[in-house]
């Protein structure tokens, strides 16, 4: 059964969940969603069918996929009162803060969605979250730049709708570029799940107290925000820009990392599980080249990233520590070429990861006898002692 077991069968410090959703092999660089290799899904699938697969366990038939897509289309609009939450945020609020706040607030609009054992309600909350997160994300961007919100349109596909809500302005329509649509759809697939990463484990832990799905996903968004996790894609771009500002001097940056100066890290490198290569990084690196050339954009930061990767992979410091490019190393360059500011990069990660979070929450809730998560600890504090009145201290 799923649940928290320790790998060594005892009080080991590596606790492991059991789950049937995603398989990854860190040594061999293997990643499969419900048994399907990520390479095949990224190449031939779509994000919505991948979301369906993760949540339901099987790839959808034609009818199931069109029904899933139609359900989502019907729920993309936000309640007008939800829009008012954005009025309260300061202009420079980070979009991840807006995302987690608004998602948590959604639960107040769907009071009947709080019973995690009501399958009908959980399905409706699943559809509402998949449908509304792109709208919430686009509105966060519009708030940041002081532009009017653009309503979703039902005649557009999932990614097209998000791009238009993000970039269209009343003065002119946003020209939907199929290269951008297919690249973003592929990136969402590659981010859709990754077994027990920090944010997914957060969603499971919060959900294990029988908190509703909106509250659990909001917690996952907050966990993803951290620069060691999903926030790394924004940190990579900031790292590349700082190297560029130093005249593209990759060597001196690498030396700073090796000397651990001010705790600086090679962002977008390293992984808790992948100790060879991250299969997603290979696909994204190729996509970065394709998108930039298809958009007719060259980006000096891509050249710096390639130099940085080559330098690190030929340096024992990194290879001995099994530090290789992870999913975040190249994504930011693609998002930038698409027109997104760095503050939106982790929001895009959240859009991709949403179906994985929902799938894990649902698996955990549906597990017979699933119990509240309650990690134990090894006490390292002082032994018992008696209270001393303040005058005698
Ligand atoms: C994601 O879990 C997931 O699956 C996450 C994710 C997902 O899909 O959900 O894959 C997405 O979060 C990818 C990771 C994005 N984060 C970054 O790119 C931030 C930079 N990376 C590091 O912070 C780090 O590699 C972690 C957090 C990703 C993993 O950390 P670990 O496995 O705990 O490694 P560690 O901190 O124990 O480091 C081991 C050694 C240390 O050196 P020593 O003390 O042995 O001398 O490697 C060094 C670390 O200092 N090290 C790095 C480094 N990562 C680890 N040194 C320089 N640059 C780095 N990036």
TrEMBL record:
Pathway assigned in UniProt: Carbohydrate metabolism; tricarboxylic acid cycle; isocitrate from oxaloacetate: step 1/2
Domain of life per record: Bacteria
Keywords, alphabetical: Transferase, Tricarboxylic acid cycle
Transmembrane segments: none
Pfam families (UniProt xref): Citrate_synt
Catalyzed reaction equations: oxaloacetate + acetyl-CoA + H2O = citrate + CoA + H(+)
Family membership noted in the UniProt record: Belongs to the citrate synthase family.
Protein name (database record): Citrate synthase
Native source species: Streptomyces thermolineatus
Source taxonomy: Bacteria, Bacillati, Actinomycetota, Actinomycetes, Kitasatosporales
């Amino acid at each position: 059964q799923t649940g928290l077991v320790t790998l060594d069968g005892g009080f080991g410090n590596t606790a492991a969940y059991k789950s049937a959703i995603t398989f990854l092999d860190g040594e061999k660089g293997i990643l499969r969603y419900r048994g399907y290799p990520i390479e095949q899904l990224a190449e031939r699938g779509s994000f919505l069918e991948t979301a369906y697969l993760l949540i339901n366990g099987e790839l959808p038939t034609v009818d199931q996929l069109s029904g899933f897509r139609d359900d989502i289309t019907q729920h993309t609009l936000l309640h007008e009162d939800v829009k008012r939450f954005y009025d309260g945020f300061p202009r420079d609020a980070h979009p991840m803060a807006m995302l987690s706040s608004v998602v948590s607030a959604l639960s107040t609009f769907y009071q009947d969605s709080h019973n995690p054992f009501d399958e009908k309600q959980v399905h409706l909350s699943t559809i509402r979250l998949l449908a509304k997160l792109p709208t919430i994300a686009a509105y966060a961007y519009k708030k940041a730049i002081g532009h009017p919100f653009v309503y979703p349109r039902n005649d557009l596909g999932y990614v097209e709708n998000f791009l238009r809500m993000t970039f269209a302005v009343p003065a002119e329509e946003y020209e939907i570029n199929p290269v951008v649509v297919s690249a973003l759809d592929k990136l969402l697939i590659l981010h859709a799940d990754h077994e027990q990463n920090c944010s997914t484990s957060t969603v499971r832990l919060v959900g294990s107290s029988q908190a509703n799905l909106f509250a659990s996903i909001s917690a996952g968004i907050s966990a993803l925000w951290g620069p060691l996790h999903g926030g790394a894609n924004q940190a990579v771009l900031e790292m590349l820009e700082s190297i560029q500002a130093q005249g593209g001097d990759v060597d001196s940056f690498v030396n700073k990392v090796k000397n651990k100066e001010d705790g600086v890290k090679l962002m977008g490198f390293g992984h808790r599980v992948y100790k060879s290569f991250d299969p997603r990084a290979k696909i994204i690196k190729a996509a970065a080249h394709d998108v930039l050339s298809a958009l007719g954009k060259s980006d000096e930061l891509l050249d710096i990233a390639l130099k940085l990767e080559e330098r690190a992979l030929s340096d024992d410091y990194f290879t001995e520590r099994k530090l290789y490019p992870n999913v975040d190393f190249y994504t930011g360059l693609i998002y930038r070429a698409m027109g997104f500011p760095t503050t939106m990069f982790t929001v895009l990660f959240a859009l991709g990861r949403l179906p994985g979070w929902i799938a894990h929450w649902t698996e955990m809730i549906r597990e017979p006898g699933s119990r509240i998560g309650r990690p134990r600890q090894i006490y390292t504090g002082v032994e018992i002692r008696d209270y001393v009145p303040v005058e005698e201290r």
